[in-house]
Design goal:
Helix content of chain B: over 70%
Distance between the termini of chain A: 35 Å
CATH architecture of one domain in chain B: Orthogonal Bundle
Helix content of chain A: 25-40%
Mean pLDDT of chain B: 89
Radius of gyration of chain A: 24 Å
Largest sheet of chain B: none
Structural class of chain A: alpha+beta
Number of strands of chain A: 17
Structural class of chain B: mainly alpha
CATH topology of the largest domain in chain A: Rossmann fold
Shape of chain B: globular
CATH class of one domain in chain B: Mainly Alpha
Number of helices of chain B: 14
Largest sheet of chain A: 6 strands, mixed
Strand content of chain A: 25-35%
Largest interface: A-B, 29 and 20 residues
CATH superfamily of the largest domain in chain A: P-loop containing nucleotide triphosphate hydrolases
CATH architecture of the largest domain in chain A: 3-Layer(aba) Sandwich
Low-confidence stretches of chain B: none
Radius of gyration of chain B: 22 Å
CATH topology of one domain in chain B: MetI-like fold
Number of strands of chain B: 0
CATH superfamily of one domain in chain B: MetI-like
Mean pLDDT of chain A: 89
Strand content of chain B: under 5%
Oligomer: heterodimer
Chain lengths: 328, 281
């Protein structure tokens, strides 16, 4: 089910949390709301869920063409996964997952056996078979997160909303779970909107990335578009390391560390290149990072593969020429 | 560890042991004579019954008050929050005299209450135990009756519930409520199935504290109760009256009996607590 957001405003007192925000989330997509804290991304997610209401006005939120403004969260059939999971700690894993089904009015509530079957099906789906009798405190962070996901999916939501889904996990689990969620999304194919402040996460996971800043949407596009053709200096800087470089012809440009080519000083071409001196050199890992100082005293970060570094045979103090090669 | 044991021995164990030693000075026959006397039995019933009832009411009102204090912002909230502690700080005799003045027949509330009781008495002429109560209320207002004792015990027990509940409720956060709401639960279902079960251990603790305090309460009750033998006489008062007659042994026996009952009750509550708490973890 697609989500269309039309000119939504939200103010908290005198603070503007969202200003004229419009967005299309295509059916079946995995869309990331990416931005620094205070950019309004979580507020937008909560408004879509119905946990927060937009300011009065012409703003609309459509689920598959149907306006849901004014409909409370419980009637929107959205699955919401909270940053800290918000599991019911006095209930077992199975009871947590079944909660959304057991609170249905009696006429719509499935039979007990049916609920049990659904819980087991969901436990299988999130790879937690056999943990149904555990309590939340007996689970790891990653397991809790998947319980929260299963609980949200139990009500067969039309859209899935995740608030900082990996925010509370350590780095290793975060990476694994990220991959898993991508595969999982492709299996269940449910329109999913998630909030993150981690650009790497957004770029790796999402079909569509929405960059937000100061209550507004800055840019919407595929990860590749956003990364390669940022529409503003803000997006450029937010999506990874970037150098501000003045080229020999006087043009100022933003350039990513890996888009800079390192050449021997002898290959220096004054029309395109700048001379630089290597200040430091990190080569632990697949990618080596050079910190070089330009002739005007500015520092620039350069990334190159270990292989290139070895071929060039560089060390700290060497003079090199650098050339920017932005993507076409 | 060593400090804890030494300290607890000094302020709790040794005095209690002394109490039992004193009580043991009397023979079994004397024990029996004191403990099964009708006056003691009536006072025991009254003390434990009213203490439980007052603690029960404090749990309900304490829950409501704490809810408002934690969940809502309003002018004067901090004043109100500070006021909750007043029963802790006020000398109990002052509380007893004040409550008597307010709830007695001449008091602000007591006068209306007495008028209402008079009306009920003249309209329906209730008989039996209820008739007797209403008769007392019509004559004395809410004071000088078991209702008066109940009011005093509610007054002193209430802050225990609020203060045990408050931090737990503040810790709950809004997320679990919102989670339940997105899953389709209505407000009442959220309260009943999510919030209340998480508060139960704190509610039981609050009840226990209020109950234990009410059992031992002396100062405020003696002013408002009227201290009629068999009717509005509480156990601590009986202990004091034994002491005034220099019957230290008898006083120790009553105190020991009270202590044993309290201990058994607190033990049972503790077991219950542990069961429920285990479910909550």
């Amino acid at each position: 089910m697609s989500i269309s957001i039309h000119s939504i405003n939200k103010t908290f007192g005198s603070y503007k949390a969202l200003e004229d925000v419009s967005l299309e989330v295509p059916n079946g997509s995995l869309t990331a709301l990416l931005g620094p804290s205070g950019s309004g991304k979580t507020t937008l997610l909560r408004i879509v869920a119905g946990l927060e209401f937009a300011d009065d006005g012409p703003g609309k939120i459509l689920f598959h063409g149907e306006n849901v403004v004014g409909i409370p969260a419980g009637k929107r059939s959205v699955g919401f996964v909270f940053q800290h999971y918000a599991l019911f700690r006095h209930m077992s894993v199975a009871d947590n997952i079944a909660f959304g089904l057991t609170v249905l009015p009696r006429s719509k509530r499935p039979a007990k056996s049916e609920i049990r079957d659904r819980v087991h099906e969901l436990l299988g789906l999130v790879k937690l078979d056999g943990l149904d009798k555990r309590r939340p405190h007996e689970l790891s962070g990653g397991q809790r997160q998947r319980v929260a996901l299963a609980r949200a999916l139990a009500i067969r939501p039309k859209v899935l909303l995740l608030d900082e889904p990996f925010g509370a996990l350590d780095a290793k689990v975060r990476k694994d779970l990220r991959r898993w969620l991508r595969v999982f999304h492709d299996e269940i194919n449910l329109t999913t909107l998630f909030v993150t402040h981690d650009q790497e996460e957004a770029l790796e996971l999402a079909d569509q990335v929405v960059v937000m800043r100061n209550a507004r949407i800055e840019q919407v596009g595929t990860p590749q578009e956003i990364y390669d053709r940022p529409r503003s200096p803000f997006v450029y800087e937010f999506l990874g390391n970037v150098n501000k470089l003045t080229e020999p012809n006087g043009v100022q440009r933003y350039i990513r560390p890996h888009e800079i080519e390192v050449l021997f000083a002898a290959e220096y071409d004054p029309t395109t290149d700048r001379m630089a001196k290597i200040q430091h050199l990190f080569s632990a890992g697949p990618v080596a990072t050079l910190g070089v100082r330009l002739d005007d005293g500015k520092f620039v970060d350069v990334e190159l593969s270990r292989k290139q570094l070895e071929d060039l045979g560089l060390s700290v103090g060497d003079e090199v020429a650098i050339r920017s090669n932005p993507p076409e | 560890m060593g400090f804890t044991i030494a300290y607890l021995s000094l302020i709790i164990l040794i005095p209690l042991a002394a109490l039992f030693i004193k009580a043991a000075g009397l023979g079994w026959e004397e024990w029996k004579a004191i403990l099964v006397s009708p006056r003691i039995i009536a006072a025991t019933r009254l003390t434990f019954g009213l203490s439980a009832a007052a603690a029960g009411v404090s749990v309900v009102t304490g829950l409501l008050v704490t809810w408002v204090l934690v969940r809502y912002e309003f002018p004067g909230k901090r004043m109100l929050d500070a006021m909750v502690d007043l029963p802790f700080a006020l000398p109990t005799a002052v509380a007893g005299i004040t409550l008597t003045a307010i709830y007695g027949k001449e008091g602000w509330i007591g006068s209306h209450f007495a008028a209402a009781a008079t009306w009920v008495k003249e309209t329906w002429h209730p008989a039996g135990w209820i008739g007797e109560q209403i008769n007392t209320w019509a004559n004395f207002g809410a004071a000088y009756s078991s209702l008066g004792i109940f009011i005093a015990l509610t007054f002193i027990g209430f802050p225990f519930v609020v203060r045990t509940l408050q931090p737990v409720m503040e810790d709950l956060g809004k997320e679990i409520e919102e989670a339940a709401a997105t899953l389709g639960a209505g407000r009442w279902t959220v309260f009943r199935r999510v919030i209340l079960p998480l508060l139960v251990p704190a509610l039981i603790t609050g009840f226990t504290l209020a109950f234990a305090r009410a059992i031992g309460e002396y100062g405020s009750v003696i002013f408002i109760s009227g201290n009629l033998p068999m009717k509005t006489e509480i156990l601590p008062l009986l202990i004091v009256s034994q002491l005034e007659q220099f019957k230290y042994g008898a006083a120790a026996v009553i105190a020991s009996g009270m202590l044993i009952i309290s201990f058994v009750l607190l033990f049972i509550i503790n077991l219950l607590q542990r069961r429920l708490d285990w479910q909550n973890r």
